[in-house]
Amino acid sequence: MWTDTHCHLDAAEFDADRAAVVARAKAAGVTQIVIPAVEPGNFDTVRLLAIEHGFSYALGVHPLYVMRAPADALEQLAEALRTHLGDPRLVAVGEIGLDFFVPGLDADTQQRFYVEQLKLAQRAGLPVLLHVRKSADQLLAGLRRVGFAHGGIVHAFNGSEQQAQAFMELGFKLGFGGTLTFERSLQIRRIAASVPATALVLETDAPDIPPQWLYRTAEQRAAEPGQGRNESAELPRIAQSLATLRGWSLDETAAITSANARVALSRLA
């Protein structure tokens, strides 16, 4: 049975057929999905989706949303964590982190939200789901500065071998998804093949980060809206790339990565 540790099931791309998306995932053997929030406005949405479909959720403010976040966003997160901490479906604080790839985002604002959300997770005793794009070293620095002790998952890991080791030493698992299916993703495939088996979890980031067989250029997506959409049902086929790299069977891959997810996000157990 598979665990998708990162799927934005609440995204507008799923509005027309969300129930069918969930049905396909379950038919493919994906029995657990973690739905991360991105801003206070969707805290209740991800929570209610998790309850409706028997999945799990995380609450946090995504770095791409901090510039439009309300002035009391961190207070809203703190209150939501207090209110729902007893809910076993709340498995992490996330999606939080830093993004230095997208232009026009204020680095200081991102850093403030990141560090304050780490502190909230620390107080709640919850792991975190970390967004990382051109920001691994800064994320690591924040974890060390806060003395963060609850680990979590580095979502869509795309750093170096040294950065992978540093995250693992701080108790984090590394999330891999559709990017693994591209033969040109040499560094990511090399790291997925070489890190300890205990470090690996699987994710889709659906509707984003499509695998190779779903990939469309920006022009193609504009011409054919909805084409190239990723979803959790693709996880077993994505996992075949990891299985091939590691020399595992698909059953072994499902068992290992789902067990790792339960270690990273202990409430999944």
Terminal CA distance reads: 13 Å
Global outline: globular
Characterize the largest beta sheet: strand count, sense, and whether it forms a barrel: 8 strands, parallel
Counting DSSP H or I runs of 4 or more residues, the number of helices is: 10
- Give the proportion of residues in helices: 40-55%
Structure description:
- This protein has 269 residues and is of the alpha/beta class.
- The protein has a single domain, classed as Alpha-Beta Barrel (TIM Barrel).
- The chain contains 10 helices and 8 strands.
- The protein has helices at 18-27, 43-53, 73-84, 107-124, 136-146, 161-169, 186-194, 218-223, 235-246, 250-264, and strands at residues 2-4, 30-36, 56-59, 90-99, 128-133, 152-155, 172-176, 200-202.
- The protein has an 8-stranded parallel sheet with strand order 1-2-3-4-5-6-7-8.
- α5 (136-146) links the parallel β5 (128-133) and β6 (152-155).
- α3 packs parallel to α4 (107-124), α4 (107-124) packs across α5 and α9 (235-246) packs across α10 (250-264).
- The longest helix has 18 residues, at 107-124.
- The chain starts with a strand and ends in a 5-residue tail after the last helix.
- The model has no long low-confidence stretch (mean pLDDT 97).
